[in-house]
Amino acid sequence: MYQQKKVHWWKPIRSWLQQTGFCWYTLSVQSIRELPFVGGHVALDFVNTAEERGHPEADDVLLTPQDLRLWGQRHGVLGRSVPLHPDAETELQRAREARDLMYALLYARVHQRPLPAIAVRSLGELAADAYRAADLQLDPDGATRWHWSTARLETVRHVAVTAGVELLAGRPSTRLKQCPGDHCGWFFLDATKRGNRRWCQMRECGQEAKDRRRREQRRR
Ligand SMILES: [Zn+2]
User: Fold this and answer.
1) Greater confidence, 18 or 81?
2) Which pTM value belongs to this model?
3) Ligand 1 geometric centre to CA of 203 (Å)
4) Rounded Cα–Cα distance for residues 89 and 216 (Å)
5) Residue 90 and residue 75 in contact, taking contact as beta carbons nearer than 8 Å
6) How far is the centre of ligand 1, averaged over its atoms, from the C-alpha of 50 (Å)?
């Protein structure tokens, strides 16, 4: 989670600020700067830029083209110099749509439901676009790899989409999980030896659940 999860004091303040026309960007920058990458996979970390989907207080840190660029730079997908062209706002919308599409597919996969055919088709179209923008290069280790320009904002979407395609191409794995924490829903790959990781971050969602259980026990 990219905000302090235990205390949601800032949400009513944010709603109030939005009603008054305050630019939330000045506050959201702080959160995307601090967003931890807990997914263990670039596609999952990208989808995890939103949380609490379907909840009235759903959070999202991809609000501006600058957010998208910063996320890409922090994840090492983009370089230091990425100009924001006039169509950057359109790219932000495309990236957010790609993220929602991947969320629907990952959700179905984690919860052992058939992947929605229409979403698979859309992901295929996005992947075809991504590969058209890529170069297949011979890396020093002798392997061929797709490379995208690190100076273009759309590279974030291309990298996330193609990584998502690869993730879904594998057999369904019990290692792909969704955090059951309140106000969360983040995805991650469980890389623990025993495969018993439950939370996106123990010190956030795990601790929150523990504290809640203790409170309930005390009330009894
Ligand atoms: Zn969580």
Assistant:
1) 81
2) 0.82
3) 10
4) 46
5) no
6) 12
Rounded distance from Cα 6 to ligand 1 centre (Å): 11
Distance 190 CA to ligand 1 centre (A): 13
Side-chain half-sphere of 111: how many Cα atoms within 13 Å? 13
Residue 62 Cα to ligand 1 middle (Å) = 18
CA–CA distances in Å: residue 80 to residues 94, 125, 199, 208? 22, 29, 32, 37
Quick one: pLDDT band at residue 25, thresholds 50, 70, 90? very low
As residues whose CB is below 5 A from the ion ligand 1, the structure lists 179, 181, 184, 186, 200, 205
Report the separation in Å between the CA atom of 56 and the middle of ligand 1, taken as the mean of its atom positions: 17
Task: Give the mean model confidence (pLDDT) for residues 27-49.
Answer: 83
For residue 85, what are its two tokens?
A: 């062209």
Strand pairing partners for 135? 147
Ligand 1 centroid, distance to 129 Cα (angstroms): 32
Q: Could you tell me the distance, in angstroms and rounded to a whole number, from the CA of residue 149 to the centre of ligand 1?
A: 32
Domain covering 25-174 in this structure, CATH number: 1.10.3300
pLDDT at 220: 67
Average pLDDT score over residue span 106-132: 97
59 within 8 A of 2, measured Cβ to Cβ? yes
C-alpha–C-alpha distance, residues 46 and 41, integer Å:
9
Distance 177 CA to ligand 1 centre (A): 11
Phi-psi region of 197 (alpha: psi -120 to 50; beta: other; left: phi over 0): beta
Strand residues in 68-192 grouped as ranges (E): 135-138, 144-147, 176-178, 187-189
